[in-house]
Write a structure and sequence with these properties.
By secondary structure, the chain is of the alpha/beta class. The chain folds into 2 domains: 78 residues, Arc Repressor Mutant, subunit A (Orthogonal Bundle), CATH 1.10.10; 160 residues, Glucose-6-phosphate isomerase like protein, domain 1 (Rossmann fold). It is 60% helix and 10% strand. It contains 15 helices and 7 strands. The longest helix is centred in the middle third of the chain and has 19 residues. It is elongated and about 75 Å long.
Length: 301
């Protein structure tokens, strides 16, 4: 079996073994070396069809490289290239994957599959450990950049309902990030959120927090994520790309679960907070009243 460090050398390994492959396997090897960004998202049948070999030849090729089967080879290629794809390459790859037909159904089914994988693969020990650490923290920092900023904002919003010591880190510039977390220490927790393409600012902030003894909780997509090495608790949510956009459905579901689990641990505090908020919202008419109630008042007039 190939380890995580060997994923990085996969293309070199294929090149080194090239002369030992059969004629058909050489066709596969050449295609992967030249077009690994596309091969990573092809089925064995599709790859075989493109290079002119049978599906069984593709499966045997994976075995020659030491994988249990083609899905493991495919996964290694995906982990290798996902952080390296440019937006233009993402569009090209996703166009090949989605093809024609019902795009709506294909994208939603892909998201459903990512949630299912997240449910089965997430470490419950890490999840429960993260919940306990957050509940017991003196300060809670939340950080997410670019597309992950929306996830961080959502998490920060609800954590602010529960705690009075939440800092949603402003990520406008790299220097501002470090200015905001400069006092982080062993009594604090930082939740860092990043998915391919990984944010350098988030990775550096996680390292900074880890060096200062803070508990680091990462919400990311795999053990190959650069956040993984600095984290006390790793919450892995399966992500994918839908054309040039990031599919963050599974990460958001994970964050929902995290908020609910923390809320249950702080149930009395949450109840008191929302009881007070309801009075404030009502007094300052934050939300519109029900249309039927308004119509009823008009009828009385």
């Amino acid at each position: 079996m190939w380890g995580e460090t060997m994923n990085k050398d996969l293309l070199n390994q294929i090149q080194n073994l090239y002369q030992t492959f059969s004629k058909g396997q050489k066709h596969i090897a050449k295609f992967i070396i030249d077009h690994y960004d596309k091969a990573a998202f092809m089925t064995a049948s599709k790859l075989g069809s493109i290079v002119g070999v049978s599906e069984s030849t593709v499966v045997r090729f994976a075995s020659e490289l030491g994988f249990e089967g083609y899905p493991q080879l495919q996964k290694s290629l995906q982990e290798l290239i996902r952080n390296k794809l440019t937006s233009v390459q993402r569009i090209e790859v996703s166009t090949d994957r989605l093809g024609d037909g019902d795009i709506f159904e294909k994208v939603l089914n892909s998201d459903i599959e990512k949630i299912k994988k997240t449910v089965t693969e997430l470490s419950r020990d890490d999840f429960n450990g993260a919940v306990s650490a957050i509940v017991g923290a003196k300060n809670i920092y939340v950080l997410g950049v670019r597309s992950s900023a929306a996830l961080a904002s959502f998490l920060g919003l609800y954590f602010n309902y529960i705690f009075d010591h939440v800092i949603l880190v402003n990520t406008t510039s790299g220097s501002e990030v470090f200015e905001q977390i400069m006092r982080i220490n062993e009594n604090d927790v930082i939740v860092g959120i990043s998915f391919p393409r990984y944010s350098t600012r988030t990775v550096k902030a996680m390292k900074f927090a880890s060096d200062r003894g803070a508990t680091v909780v990462s919400i990311t997509d795999s053990k190959m994520s650069p956040l993984y090495r600095y984290s006390s608790y790793n919450l892995i949510a399966k992500s994918d790309m839908a054309s040039f956009v990031d599919s963050l459905v599974a990460p958001l579901s994970l964050i929902n679960a995290l908020i609910v689990a923390v809320g249950i641990k702080c149930q009395a505090q949450v109840y008191n907070t929302f009881a007070q908020l309801e009075r404030i919202w009502d007094e300052y008419e934050v939300y519109d009243k029900n249309d039927e109630e308004n119509r009823g008042d008009e009828d009385k007039e």
